[in-house]
C-alpha cells in the first residue's frame, strides 16, 4: 500500500542519512529515493477515497429527508377534507410530481437538476404564497438549505478532482518507482556492511527490522487486498 511505502521509505531515509556524509555513492541513491518519496507524499491523497465522499453521502441523505418531509406534508394536505387546503396543496403537489416523484431512482446530477426546476416553480410569487398560506414555507426553506449544503460540497469535490487531474500523479504509479529506489539503497548498505560492519551494521540491522515488521503487516491484510490493483510494497532482505 501507499502508506506502507511512505512509512518504510521515511525510515530508510532517516536511518541512512548519517551514512551519506562520507559515502558519495550512497548519497546518490539516498537523493534518488528522497525525490521519489517526496512525490509520493505529495500525491498520496490521490490513492485513496476522497475524504469528502462520506460527508457528501450524508448531505445527500439530509437533502432527501427534507424533500420527503415537504412532499409528505403537501400530499397529506392535498388529501384533506378542508376544500381550500386540498385545492392549494394539490397545485403544489402537481409540481412535486412533475419533478421529483421518482427522485430516489435518480442519480445525484439528475436529482439536482430536477430540484433546481422545482425551486424555480416554487419560488414563483403565486406558488410561494401558497406555501406561506399553508404554513409549510419553513419546510421548503429547510429543503433549499439542505440542497445548498449538498451542492456546495459537490462542487468542492469536483474542483478537487479537477485539481487532481491537472496537478498530480497517481500515487500507485509513483509506488512502482519507490520500490526499486528503496531496494537499491538497501542493497548498497548491505554491501557496505560486508566490508565495514562497524560503520554500517547498526543501520542495516535497523532497516532489516523495519522491513520485516512492515512485510508482516502486509501479509496480515493480504486477504483484504486480493482485489486491489495497488502494487504491494514488499522488500526482501538477506
Average pLDDT level: 83
Report strand %: under 5%
DSSP helix fraction: over 70%
Shape: rod-shaped
Cα(first) to Cα(last) distance is 22 Å
Number of domains: 2
Order of helices and strands: HHHHHHHHH
Helix tally equals 9
Structural class comes to mainly alpha
What is the CA-based Rg, rounded?
30 Å
List keywords for this structure.
mainly alpha, 2 domains, rod-shaped
Summarize the structure in words.
The protein is 77% helix and 0% strand. It is built from nine helices and no strands. The mean pLDDT is 83. The longest helix is centred in the middle third of the chain and has 30 residues, at 137-166. The protein has 238 residues and is mainly alpha-helical. It has two domains: 2-49 and 169-225, no CATH class; 51-166. Helix 1 packs antiparallel against helix 2 (24-43) and helix 8 packs antiparallel against helix 9. It starts with a helix and ends in an 18-residue tail after the last helix. The protein has helices at residues 2-16, 24-43, 51-78, 83-100, 108-122, 125-133, 137-166, 171-195, 197-220.
